[in-house]
Write a structure and sequence with these properties.
By secondary structure, the chain is mainly α. The chain has 25 helices and no strands. α3 crosses α5, α5 runs antiparallel to α10 and α12 packs parallel to α17. The longest helix has 28 residues. The protein is globular. The two termini are 22 Å apart. One of its GO terms (cellular component) is endoplasmic reticulum membrane. GO terms for molecular function: squalene synthase [NAD(P)H] activity.
Length: 527
């Protein structure tokens, strides 16, 4: 908790958003438990699949669980099978001395239906592969189209893994090729799933998968490939420390070789940060394709599923840019940013989020270097696309005015709340009307009934109470009852000259939570 507060101390909007998210999030409904298509054993296996998904990928679990039931289950099985394949590739040290056997396992993995009982260090991934038969039992109840598409992609992914299993990534071309096999193909199958399940029409495949007019330099096909490749490159860049510990090298030597002769000693280079920046420059070229893909998506559920990982990835790139801490630890974005990403449900919202991330990168650019100039050029291209949708970037003065306006609104809201509360508070004395010049109460006593009747033009507290009451959620009937009760209380107080009979608001109690929703609403428009 202290770490979260420390990370978000200058991000009040994210703190409010996290509070709102934690208090309003709903647990994922276990719809399969009442689905007559599944028997008791299959229902237990589906429960296991959703549970283990949360273990091996919390962020993907969030977005997958938001999808409609059937396609959600398709995506769960696809993700778990791909994750199990990746685990065999990366985390089975017992097979590292027998690459021939490892290649054979990968080659036939798309046919595997049994538990995979190799020992690995990661407990969560071990649980997945040791119970792989349960994943495949659920796979067997999916539609023929779903199983066929998944098997096809798993087979292709394994082919790419085998290709680079016993060789290092030397060139940027090989780097793109590897990322295509292990992630670009996933973008393709997800696009096909969206059409098969009726999320998007058949024309969507032509606009994305078959669209060869892509901006990125990966040369692997359509917009869908850029979606997957961007995510994979983000993970590869961020996971330097983790891969070094596993004796892996996925960064292309064409780039890191400029800064060191030994990949494991790259952090010792005086320009190690430039290597990170050059890799990120290469990855930024995928963003125009990502924006084009997301603009074509029509279904809101599928849009959120696609957009969330991309926003998290671009914020991760912003965190990694020019940041040599990457060489010592796995960098993760703030939880508040991740929740913001999960709230993105429109193309304009995505544009705002990407612009925010690009602004962070811009603040880190060293434009005295060639790499910095390339970064500026890439950002300018992306900003041009974004500006067509949401307008140009606001100037610093416009931003100040915007937040100043919010501050003024908050001050006014608090003032009205105070006035409305004190108006009905029997312990508060009434405010003297401005036209009373004599300060001696014995010579010129205040006529409370005159003030309440609204005769004072300069200070109409009755109208103020009505306005404040409406603002804070009370209806006209409650306001009138409260004011009538207060008027009677004050008159009785004047007659009896006692405080004991002053107004006590019972007939129009104020909503106890009326302040907080308004605060969340004000900030929610900007979150």
């Amino acid at each position: 908790m202290l770490e979260i507060i420390k990370n978000h101390i200058f991000h009040l909007d994210e703190i409010l958003l996290m509070l709102h998210y934690n208090f309003t999030k709903q647990s994922h409904e276990k719809w399969w438990l009442t689905d007559i298509r599944f028997d008791a054993d299959v229902r237990d296996d589906i429960t296991f699949c959703y549970d283990v998904l949360k273990d091996v990928s919390r962020s993907f679990a969030e977005v997958i669980c938001q999808l409609p039931n059937n396609i959600s289950l398709d995506f769960v099985i696809l993700y778990l099978r791909a994750r199990a394949l990746d685990t065999i590739e990366d985390e089975t040290p017992i097979l590292n001395d027998d690459l021939k056997k490892k290649k054979k396992i990968l080659k036939h993995f798309h046919k595997e239906t049994n538990d995979i009982l190799y020992e690995i260090n990661d407990v969560k991934h071990r649980r997945l592969i040791h119970n792989y038969s349960r994943v495949m039992k659920v796979s067997s109840v999916l539609s023929n189209k779903s199983r066929t598409l998944t098997n096809k992609i798993i087979k292709k992914m394994a082919k790419g893994m085998i290709k680079y299993l016993d060789s290092k990534i030397e060139t940027v071309e090989q780097y793109n090729d590897y990322c295509y096999y292990v992630a670009g193909l996933v973008g393709e199958i997800l696009t096909q799933f969206s059409v098969v399940n009726g999320f998007e029409d058949a024309n969507f495949i032509k606009q994305t998968i078959k669209n060869k007019n892509v901006f990125s330099n990966h040369r692997k096909g359509g917009l869908d490939k850029s979606m997957g490749i961007f995510l994979q490159k983000t993970n590869i860049i961020r996971d330097y420390k983790e891969d070094i510990d596993l004796n892996k090298q996925w960064w292309p030597k064409d780039i890191w070789g400029k800064y060191s002769d030994d990949f494991s000693r790259l952090p010792e280079s005086p320009n190690a940060n430039h290597c990170i920046n050059e890799l990120i420059n290469d990855n930024l070229e995928n963003i125009p394709d990502i924006l084009e893909y997301l603009k074509l998506v029509q279904n809101v559920d599928y849009f959120k599923f696609c957009a969330t990982p991309q926003i998290i990835a671009i914020h991760t790139q912003a965190l990694c840019y020019n940041n040599v801490k990457l060489y010592q630890q796995k960098l993760k974005i703030r939880k508040g940013l991740a929740i913001k990403a999960m709230k993105a449900n429109s193309y304009k919202h995505v544009c705002h989020q990407i612009r925010n991330a690009l602004n962070i990168i811009k603040s880190k650019i060293d434009n005295k270097t060639e790499i910095g100039l390339v970064t500026e050029k890439n950002i300018m291209i992306i900003e041009t696309i974004i500006s067509k949708e949401i307008g140009p970037e606001k100037t610093i003065f416009e931003k100040i005015n915007q937040y100043l306006f919010l501050l003024i609104v908050l001050v006014v809201v608090n003032f009205l709340f105070y006035k409305f509360s004190t108006y009905f508070d029997p312990n508060k004395t009434d405010i003297n009307p401005p036209n009373i010049t004599n300060t001696n109460p014995l010579e010129n006593p205040i006529n409370n009934t005159e003030i309440l009747s609204g005769n004072n033009e300069d200070f109409d507290i009755k109208e103020l109470a009505k306005t404040a009451g409406k603002l804070f959620g009370l209806n006209n009937e409650d306001i009138e009852k409260a004011m009538a009760s207060r008027t009677n209380g004050i008159m009785e107080s004047n007659n009896n000259n006692t405080m004991s009979s002053m107004f006590n608001i019972n007939s129009a109690e104020l909503p106890s939570t009326m302040g907080m929703p308004m605060i969340f609403t004000l900030f929610g428009t900007k979150i």
